[in-house]
Amino acid sequence: MKYVYLLGLWGIFLMACSSEKAEPADLIFTNGIIYTVNESQPTAEAVAVKDGMILAVGSVEEIEKHQAENTELINLQGETMTPGLIESHAHLMGIGYNKLELDLMYVKTYDELVEKVAEAVAKAKPGDWITGRGWHQDKWIEKPEKMVKGFQTNDQLNEASPDNPVFLRHASGHAAFANGKALELAGISNLKGERPGEVEGGEIILDELGNPTGILSERASGLVARLIPAETPERAEEALTLALKELNEKGITSFHDAGSGQNVIDLIQKFKNEGKLTVRQYVMLTGTQPALLEEWYKKGPMIDSADHMLTVRSIKLNCDGALGNRGAWLLEDYSDRPDHRGHETLPMSVVSEVSEKAIPAGFQVCSHAIGDRANQEILDRYEAAFANYPDAKDLRFRIEHAQHIHPDDIPRFGELGVIAAMQAIHLSSDRPWAIDRLGEKRIVDGAYVWQKLMKTGAVVTNGTDAPVEPVDPIPSFYASVTRKTLQGMPEGGYEGDQKMTRAEALKSYTLDGAFAEFEEDFKGSIEVGKAADFTVFDKNIMEVPEDEILETKVAMTVVGGKVVYKK
């Protein structure tokens, strides 16, 4: 009996020792404010990491038990840590190439645009193409005297560059501005006929005499774009390097690339193999290459279940244009251009065909839709495809942007389980002039309706659509919770009842983004067993006054337990 008693004491002693000797961590983050996006444990004081995964989350005392001789301690010095941010819709190579070309995102007048082109011409060789992106006529502080259908003409551009072809993409990517030399090379001159300027899925904007103004809307841009010399492998690598660096600096740990071909996938794979891929990639196959899609239907998705750095399991379809160039496909006329309803840039039969093939092949479909007609048509085709495969579950089809939706179609997102992959920053940038395009009723009823969508049970993700907007998540987070312009207008925000709470905004940029790529069990929240992907901010974005949110900077970015950026 005495032996049994002593054995019992020894067992208690062993248990006490084992409870103190917790599994050693490679890395411990402590002394910060940690928001986990885990409902059962919303905040924590410290996090332990081992082999790139989260080992423990809790108080300082709990996490200290995982400290060993070789554990690296990272003192957050009171800064704020969240799950790694997930950019749910942007264009990877576009971000990089934007840094190699003329960046027109911050141009405030047409004269300033022309000045930038003139500077580029002075440095270029005769005949070299001048390319750039980012201009937006509705964001200029003053408009040129001569405007045609809401756009500038290329008279000044021709004077600045008479011999070098110029091709400048609109910020939205849904229009382009070309000079006379570029149009000449494309064989575009005075156009006459019954329907002058019309191109299938697009439009060449003409003046009153039938002369092209240089504005090419939607698919008409391709008439000139196809003449631009192909990118070299060296330049592509440079662009990808610059894009990854930008994402690291902006706190992005995972990235949904909204439409690429095999060449980009191969380049990302090359970077992964060489240890240069510092952001997790979820690549959508571009729907502009039917042969590519057929190849992937046969071999099926490429799901990276090892290190989760490169997955290809979705297809991107471009189904209409944007509001900025009046290319978004509407059910009724544009308020500021009667008898015009935008463009169906892809036959809706293709959405049906791709959806029918994608489901049995295991692919998600992600369709670009900004106008209410495009959203409605795509929902119709998704619904029909789902009905044809009643046993297929958890498909998570998406509509990219879902910017303007007819009220009758809003509930269908939740009913069908369609994800609304939205970009809150578009509200800040577009809302001041979008009301001219749609009128007040359509804006109030169905534009940027985040709360209405979430109340249907739909998942709403967040992002920037970079390089349409800068990839910086801070302005998009600010727009989510204020519905104001970046200048802080108007008081109370536009349609303030649709604001997200800060918790909802953070979730839209983390766990909801992970859900949209079928990875919510691997990342998106700070929980034991998930990836050690973190974003650290120098201000507490969940608590500071809203006018201080835009002053916040990313202090550190961590991917798989590795610090890939530190301020």
Mean pLDDT: 94
Helix content: 25-40%
Instruction: Give Rg in angstroms.
Output: 26 Å
Beta-strand content bin: 15-25%
Largest sheet: 8 strands, parallel
What does this protein look like?
This is Amidohydrolase. It comes from Algoriphagus halophytocola. Residues 72-565 form the Amidohydrolase domain. Keywords: Signal. The protein is an alpha/beta fold and 567 residues long. It is 34% helix and 22% strand. The chain contains 20 helices and 27 strands. A hairpin with a 2-residue loop joins strand 26 (554-559) and strand 27. The radius of gyration is 26 Å and the shape is globular. 50% of the residues are buried.
How is this structure best summarized?
This protein is α/β, with parallel strands linked by helices and 567 residues long. The model is unreliable at 1-19 (pLDDT under 50).
